[in-house]
Amino acid sequence: xxxxxxxxMVDAYVDGELTAxxxxxxxxxxxxxxxxxxxxxxxxxxGNLLRDLPAEPAPDLLRAKIERxxxxxxxRTAAARPSNAGWGERMRWMAMAASLIVAVGIGxxxxxxxxxFTGRGSNDTDALVASYLRVAMAEHPVDIASSxxxxxxxxxxxxxxxxxxxxxxxxxxxxxxxGRLDVIEGRKVAVLVYRRxxxxxxxxxWPAESAGNTEPAVKQxxxxxxxxxxHGGFEWRAVSDxxxxxxxxxxxxxxxxxxADH
Amino acid sequence: xxxxxxxxxxxxLMLPHLDAAYGxxxxxxxxxxxxxxxxxxxxxxxxxxxHAFRGEEARPWLLxxxxxxxxxxxxxxxxDQPLEVVENQPADGPDPEQSALAGDRRRQVAAALxxxxxxxxxxxxxxxxxxxxxxQIAAVLDLPIGTVMSRLARARExxxxxxxxxxxxxxxxxxxx
Lengths: 262, 177
Description:
The complex is a heterodimer. Chain A is an alpha+beta fold. Helix content of chain A is 50%, strand content 19%. Chain A is elongated and about 85 Å long. Chains A and B meet through helix 1, helix 3 and helix 4 of A and helix 1, helix 2, helix 3, helix 7 and helix 8 of B.
């Protein structure tokens, strides 16, 4: 076997694509060909280094979104079919929906978001992500649907103990979808919901206990972007599946709106 | 629209490969957020084409759809912006001192792979990370097997060159090129 022949076989040999006879021929040729031995070493080291890269499983949110789409499609066809079979189908999908919610819950409680985001432990982060998932996964992500802050702001009166500042940020690409109430760590909290293209962004806020502003700290975890900061007398927490860069521009836009108002 | 029986069959056959689809999408797009969008769109497209699934290996069938979806998305994006913007990836340059750190090696390997041209990157991912045989790689990329073999050879050579630039040659089993 001449070198061009064995050279052409190096990769197929490494990849286990040669027959036993071809492999034996190649191995014999290799003893006489230092160039091809080098090529073989290179191919093997490259493979080992690549196989050593950590696998990244699909984020829970992606899985949940796909499950929701599948349920929607199956639900529509089941609903379109008259007869009792439709009922049984629907019950089955509802059971699956219920198990999905549990699965998502366990996923987060199981600590895929471990590591302190806020400095007060990861419970807070988990609670915020859970709150975001309620927004991202719900049929009706807001309790009061409006892009008008004159409508959203008064809605909170009597529902929570503070009056949240509400701004529509459509001008900078984050239209306000509305507001909702959530319970985070046992407290009733105002959550404003914004949209960025196909993505939703949940902004939780409550009155700050300490004075002064802090710079927004943007982090990314498991496909989520999260921001935490204090500005204008409020604590702000934003969670979304937008990119960290977009999250950064959101925080800047919100701070700008707050400052312009004061 | 697929009926609920089809959706259920799809769920059983294809959802187990969502991790693979997302992993491939990550290396194609080089961005975790875009990869999620791509994987989601590809799964829905796969459901639409599921009637054409003939019981072959599910994972390469799905990966082929991921790749075709990405090619279509990219064609759309490229119409809007010049090539350099799409291809331009902030890759970490070689830093000999940092390379000495063991924990840094994987980061450098990932950066080297991300810096490869698309055709080399995707074939290396399919072979070394997705662990597909040539026949399935050929099906995913729609190439003759001979081309798979020669392209893999070139991709490995290029990857080795990228890596020696980033890691240095000693201690990583990379022979001089």
